[in-house]
Amino acid sequence: MVKPFMPQLVYFEPKALDYPLGQELYKKFQAKDIEIRYTTSHNQVRNLPGENDFQRYRIAKSTLVVGLRKTLKFDTSKPSAEYAIPFATGCMGHCHYCYLQTTMGSKPYIRTYVNVEEILESAHQYMEERAPEITRFEASCTSDIVGIDHLTHTLKRAIEYFGNTSLGRLRFVTKFNNVDHLLDAKHNGRTRFRFSMNADYVIKYFEPGTSRLHERIEAAGKVARAGYPLGFIIAPIYLFEGWQEGYKQLFERLSTELADEAKDGVTFELIQHRFTKPAKKVIQKNYPMTKLELDEEKRRYKWGKYGIGKYIYPKEEETEMKETLFEYIHTYFPKGKIEYFT
């Protein structure tokens, strides 16, 4: 069992203390005797402890930076939403395949932003611009927000904010099971609560520092009973010896845990494992003992936007993977909805 995240080291931007949440976090960490330092900007944290890259990376992943989100212009977030809403950056999990390793590069520490009302005001403006269309906001493009929300309650505030709007919808995904404080949030059905799920093998070998499969399944049951629209991201779909049986057991166990009404309208997003050349380098540096298969010879190359292509499974394996998982979903979740496979 993974304990709820508690940083070993915390940095504050001075201006963060001008906000109630900044003050609250400061008092919380002071009371717990956690080392507090200051930084001019959440992008400029330097001199992290550690004698080598391996140590520094691990210490950074247990470091929290409390700052302000200065850019209130949201990125677009296809295919799951219109916009990414930035409450946090970074993650305390150690998933070997994670793309944040490349996008965050030398800044793998976790950042939480305390100017929550300003971020929500920005979301309001985006909704106004798109009215009368519904606008969906994705809160987990660059973080696992649930992983730190027991400390900040920012996500809870956002869930209740969107619960009060008519044109806004919130969505996020997590690998953590510390959801209890979110169960009584007044969501009004406007937040889709998604869990990242995988075969037990993948979680066991490639997702250290995250909740185990049985814990996520149990948390999904709680969330469903709290009336949230529910979704599952099955990612990365990874071919290992016995993968068909591994994924079958996943859907069987999910189906057993969830009541029939919770299965009605549950969404599935399916993403096959992929890697880029730069990502492979970083993964092998951060997790030198990984069993993750990163052999270009066994993959096909798919050109990406921005000129960086990725290695995905060959067409034949991709087809078998897609057909197998679609069949499991139709069998165990006949009223579920597959949003995309990529």
UniProtKB/TrEMBL annotation:
<comment type="similarity">
    <text>Belongs to the radical SAM superfamily. SPL family.</text>
</comment>
<protein>
    <recommendedName>
        <fullName>Spore photoproduct lyase</fullName>
        <ecNumber>4.1.99.14</ecNumber>
    </recommendedName>
</protein>
<dbReference type="InterPro" id="IPR034560">
    <property type="entry name" value="SPL_Bacilli"/>
</dbReference>
<dbReference type="GO" id="GO:1904047">
    <property type="term" value="F:S-adenosyl-L-methionine binding"/>
</dbReference>
<dbReference type="GO" id="GO:0042601">
    <property type="term" value="C:endospore-forming forespore"/>
</dbReference>
<dbReference type="GO" id="GO:0046872">
    <property type="term" value="F:metal ion binding"/>
</dbReference>
<keyword id="KW-0411">Iron-sulfur</keyword>
<dbReference type="GO" id="GO:0030435">
    <property type="term" value="P:sporulation resulting in formation of a cellular spore"/>
</dbReference>
<comment type="function">
    <text>Involved in repair of UV radiation-induced DNA damage during spore germination. Can repair thymine dimer 5-thyminyl-5,6-dihydrothymine (known as spore photoproduct (SP)) by in situ monomerization of SP to two thymines.</text>
</comment>
<keyword id="KW-0479">Metal-binding</keyword>
<dbReference type="InterPro" id="IPR049539">
    <property type="entry name" value="SPL"/>
</dbReference>
<comment type="subunit">
    <text>Monomer or homodimer.</text>
</comment>
<dbReference type="GO" id="GO:0051539">
    <property type="term" value="F:4 iron, 4 sulfur cluster binding"/>
</dbReference>
<keyword id="KW-0408">Iron</keyword>
<dbReference type="GO" id="GO:0003913">
    <property type="term" value="F:DNA photolyase activity"/>
</dbReference>
<keyword id="KW-0234">DNA repair</keyword>
<dbReference type="InterPro" id="IPR007197">
    <property type="entry name" value="rSAM"/>
</dbReference>
<keyword id="KW-0004">4Fe-4S</keyword>
<keyword id="KW-0227">DNA damage</keyword>
<dbReference type="GO" id="GO:0006281">
    <property type="term" value="P:DNA repair"/>
</dbReference>
<dbReference type="InterPro" id="IPR023897">
    <property type="entry name" value="SPL_firmicutes"/>
</dbReference>
<keyword id="KW-0456">Lyase</keyword>
<dbReference type="GO" id="GO:0003677">
    <property type="term" value="F:DNA binding"/>
</dbReference>
<dbReference type="Pfam" id="PF20903">
    <property type="entry name" value="SPL"/>
</dbReference>
<keyword id="KW-0749">Sporulation</keyword>
<dbReference type="InterPro" id="IPR058240">
    <property type="entry name" value="rSAM_sf"/>
</dbReference>
<keyword id="KW-0238">DNA-binding</keyword>
<keyword id="KW-0949">S-adenosyl-L-methionine</keyword>
